Amino acid sequence: MGDSLIWLSVLVSPQCFIQYICMNNIVRSDCMAATIKDVAKLAEVSISTVSRVINESKPVSPEARRRVLKAIEDLGYKPNEIARSLVTKKSNLIGVIVDDIGNSYVAQIVRGIEEIGRMYKYDILLCSSYGNEESELRFMQLLMQKQVEGMIIVSEIETKKITESVKKYKIPFVYLNRFYDILQTPTVTLDNELASIIMVKHLLELGHKNILYISNGNNIERTIEKYKVKGYKETVNNAGLTPIIYNVNGYKIEDAYNAGSEIINIIKNNNITAIYCCQDELAIGLINYLYDNNIKVPDELSVVGYGDIGISSIYRPKLTTIKEPYYDLGAVAIRRILKELKGESIDEQTIKLPVQLIIRESAVQMKN
Amino acid sequence: MGDSLIWLSVLVSPQCFIQYICMNNIVRSDCMAATIKDVAKLAEVSISTVSRVINESKPVSPEARRRVLKAIEDLGYKPNEIARSLVTKKSNLIGVIVDDIGNSYVAQIVRGIEEIGRMYKYDILLCSSYGNEESELRFMQLLMQKQVEGMIIVSEIETKKITESVKKYKIPFVYLNRFYDILQTPTVTLDNELASIIMVKHLLELGHKNILYISNGNNIERTIEKYKVKGYKETVNNAGLTPIIYNVNGYKIEDAYNAGSEIINIIKNNNITAIYCCQDELAIGLINYLYDNNIKVPDELSVVGYGDIGISSIYRPKLTTIKEPYYDLGAVAIRRILKELKGESIDEQTIKLPVQLIIRESAVQMKN
DNA sequence: CTGAAAGCGCTAACAC
DNA sequence: GTGTTAGCGCTTTCAG
């Protein structure tokens, strides 16, 4: 009886030992990640010490540090960011709600956001709303639940609801809108008026006197289109000339193509020699129409666009246009958020980014 | 003395009450989100009950439910997903590492991933590696720390390191590579061989006998280009004709433009009437060169591409090409991950998606 | 310098 | 049906 008891105790002990190893090393590393506890156990220190060497938050003796580092290495330990976030209340997440990541300009913006965010160890949580206001609202809530520290909304719709509801979330956010003019909320926009001024001046310098502006705005007042129109009118007026504006219904290549014959009439009646379109798509559609009707661009007529969409540099003739710095737009937006997160004051409500004139082939010097 | 004691107790009591309210309602709702505790307190139930009504995990009496719902409403309470993730070990996050979100095809893939993921309540954590292998590895680690449940890598580089190191992370992942042929790892690809067969057959049906293939591959063996070449050769051979292949150095518009004169020689020497380019960019560069050298496409020569990049439908002549379903690629990739996450078995290692022939204007019936 | 212990906000046994 | 309690993996006092 005494013997068997001894046997038992000898048997139990190694079993427990094996169990212990399994729970904390073998099994762990096989099906789930090692935790700070495992590291502490292996290094024979407390979890606080492990935490200290990971975060370098407090001095740790060289010996302890060595052991901890070794244990981390051996276990392939990586801190669980979720747990860390819970206690520090820092998710290092920025929520980004876009209209459609498939739009190339949107992708450029996101690229800027992501690249700069990354530099400051922020990750991007991406949502596409596809222009649906309800989705935007739902995503905002969802992102809040995921504890994002800031939010950037890249939208194409004018949504008072969004900008209002965002105010109740007490986190930094920036609203990027390509079409609408929303001044009540922090935003980063492009200097569209300056863009128009630069473009019209360029055309003027090429010797053009009668410059037609093709707009796509009906209800211009709340959109940024009004700034482009303003810049155009101003510059033409200042040159002592008369602005002429034609409104196309829509913003697609076909839309301009379909308006082609009407535009040709205007050209003839007003002796137009240069056309400034409010979007590249319209310029291309128009040039296509002109080409199909034997009017050569730029030989007989100069046509310029706005936006520098991907096709513009490949299209023949290569389009003279205005390049909008979408990457920078994203970069500035997130910088602004990061700044606010650091507690620095945001001086200006709205930041205006400069645009760039890209001179290519579709507009040339007037021959007289 | 007795009086003042009574006074004191009367005074203290309301103060405590006010303090209590402040801590759990006023102050809270002003600077930080309400927690489950606040809801429980307001509704006068335990936190478990609150949890139960939120998750509908267990029956709750109508009365308690009503009170909880009201408290949630009043406090604007939203569960903290981070805390929830920590205990449930479900982050509802899918990590996506892309080469460059600025590439339009990459954006399309991400669009597919995002849209389908969203349907199953998964969020996308996005990283751009810009083709840097080290970044990819670093992001993989970072995403693991963020506890993503699955990972999709959209890369343009051939990275054995990546595919190997991904194996140590025990989570579902899919590797999407546009150029390289990596069979050791789960992937979703396009049926490039079939694409070539379809395209060459189309050209054959148009009456073309001498079809030149423009490839961009030097070291073709490890890339998917070999499948395109295979499909081309096979189909031409089966028609009793002779394949002719020209290799362009590079994959950009200029690269094909610069190879223009050499290609024209081949055309003349071999009586070529149709050219099949392995990428749209090359087709466009070539057509530009031909145009500049007074060879009309498609009147004198048919030229087709591969990829259906954005420009292809706008370019004149509109390019006949192969459309790759990038959106679907992303959608299938995430579906596969979701499936694996649900514990369903993944039958095939590699999924091949069909491509689509887009007939436009750049290739026409032979006139004889 | 180090460890014990509290707690972030939540879920999930476990008792009642 | 409901409340109590023990964690999830981590950081951060607070004592020693």
Summarize this structure as a short list of keywords or feature phrases:
homodimer, 368 residues, alpha/beta, 434 Repressor (Amino-terminal Domain), Rossmann fold, 14 helices, disordered N terminus, DNA-binding
Brief overview:
Chain A has 14 helices and 12 strands.
Give a description of the structure.
The structure is a homodimer of 368-residue chains. The first copy, chain A, folds into three domains: 2-79, 434 Repressor (Amino-terminal Domain) (Orthogonal Bundle), CATH 1.10.260.40; 89-189 and 326-348, Rossmann fold (3-Layer(aba) Sandwich); 192-325, Rossmann fold, CATH 3.40.50.2300. Chain A contains 14 helices and twelve strands. Chain A has helices at residues 2-31, 36-43, 47-55, 62-75, 81-88, 104-119, 133-145, 160-168, 192-205, 225-238, 253-258, 260-270, 280-292, 326-341, and strands at residues 93-98, 123-128, 150-155, 173-177, 187-190, 211-215, 244-247, 274-277, 302-304, 321-323, 350-353, 356-358. In chain A, the strands form four sheets. Chain A has a four-stranded parallel beta sheet with strand order 2-1-3-4, sandwiched between helices. In chain A, helix 10 links the parallel strand 6 (211-215) and strand 7. In chain A, helix 2 (36-43) packs across helix 3 (47-55), helix 6 (104-119) packs parallel to helix 14 and helix 7 (133-145) packs parallel to helix 8 (160-168). Chain A is elongated, with a radius of gyration of 31 Å. Chain A starts with a helix and ends in a 10-residue tail after the last strand. Strand 2 of chain A pairs antiparallel with strand 2 of chain B. Chain A binds a DNA duplex (16 and 16 nucleotides) through helix 3 and helix 5.
